[in-house]
Write a structure and sequence with these properties.
Number of helices: 6
Number of strands: 11
Largest sheet: 4 strands, mixed
Shape: globular
Helix content: 25-40%
Strand order of the largest sheet: 1-2-4-3
Low-confidence stretches: 234-238
């Protein structure tokens, strides 16, 4: 059961799980606050802990509020687009035939039929992004399956408004946000390792943290960097 703690204008959702330590989190993009506590923790104890961290909570929310956001893409000539953390300028070529995308060192060339609108151009770019992601995700899953001693039975790439990734540990499936194609490849790897670790431990328990600490020691730095990069124009979330 989820309860809540109200500290002035801050509402904190409290849940209890079979863990040893309290985990307090401030989630992007809007600064939603959650507190996960050991099963026997009384609400008054959780409240006292949250009060002791009030300054930290407000600072994290301030950072999220000031975080840069991408403007909506119009898919026009010389518009900036990011791929694996690097900026590229978009070039539009209009001609008859099947739309396609080509990449060189500093430029993304989108070839589309004359009269195509932003929605159509965006769809072509999105499908191209998914193809690039598939190539990287397959390699990273193959790399980490023997390390973590797990098997990913399937993965899915999609636009996700609330998460960078998710895991269905019962089915052995993971889902990844297609926005990750815009971020450095090491951050994609962090998200994949995070979701694959959930195949071992489905909750964010101490055991889960220990798995990340052992196999991906820089996970906290990667998470912080991911949350500091510009957010997509649409709300993506935690």
């Amino acid at each position: 059961m989820t309860e809540s703690i109200e500290l002035g204008d801050i509402s904190i959702a409290v849940t209890r799980k079979g863990i040893k330590n309290v985990h307090l989190s401030v989630h992007p993009p809007h600064g939603r606050v959650t507190l996960v506590a050991p099963t026997a923790t009384r609400l008054e104890v959780a409240r006292a802990y949250a009060i002791s961290k009030l300054g930290w909570i407000r600072e994290q929310q301030r950072k999220l509020t000031s975080q840069a956001r991408e403007t909506p893409r119009k898919f026009v000539n010389r518009e900036s687009h990011y791929l694996w953390g690097r900026r590229h300028l978009l070039t539009i070529v209009q001609k008859e035939g099947k739309p396609f995308v080509a990449l060189d060192h500093k430029r993304i060339t989108l070839t589309v039929r004359p009269g195509s609108d932003a929605a159509k151009r965006g769809k072509v770019i999105h499908e191209w992004h998914k193809g690039l992601l598939h190539d990287q995700v397959q390699l990273l899953i193959q790399k980490w399956e023997p390390k973590l001693k797990v098997r990913v039975r399937g993965y899915f790439l999609q636009r996700m408004k609330t998460k960078w990734g998710s895991c269905n540990h019962r089915a052995g499936h993971i889902r990844l946000n297609t926005e990750l194609v815009k971020k450095p490849k090491d951050l994609l790897e962090y998200v994949i390792v995070h979701e694959m670790a959930h195949l071992i431990e489905p909750t964010h328990s101490d055991r889960f943290i220990a798995i990340l600490d052992k196999h991906y020691p820089s996970w906290q730095e990667a998470r912080a960097e991911l949350n500091e990069l510009p957010l997509a124009a649409e709300v993506w979330g935690e």
